[in-house]
Amino acid sequence: MKSRFFAPLLLFAAVIMLTAASVEAAYPEKPVTMIIAFTAGGSSDVQARIMEKYWNKYVPQQKWVFVYKPGAGGAIGFGEIAMAKKDGYTIGGINIPHLIIQAATQKAQFKMDDFDYICQVVNDPQCVVVRKDNKLKSAKEIFEYAAANPGKLKVGLVGPNSGHHLMYLDVKKKYGFPVTEIFYKGAADQNAALLGGEIDVMLGNLNDVMRSLEEMRVLAIAAEKRNDFLPDVPTLREQGYDVLSDIRRAFVAPKGIPSADLAFLRETFKKICLDPEYQKDMKTAGQPGEYLEGPALFEHMRSLEADIREAFAKK
Question: For residue 198, which of 72, 175, 193, 233 is within the disulfide window of CB 3.0 to 4.6 Å?
Answer without folding.
Answer: 193
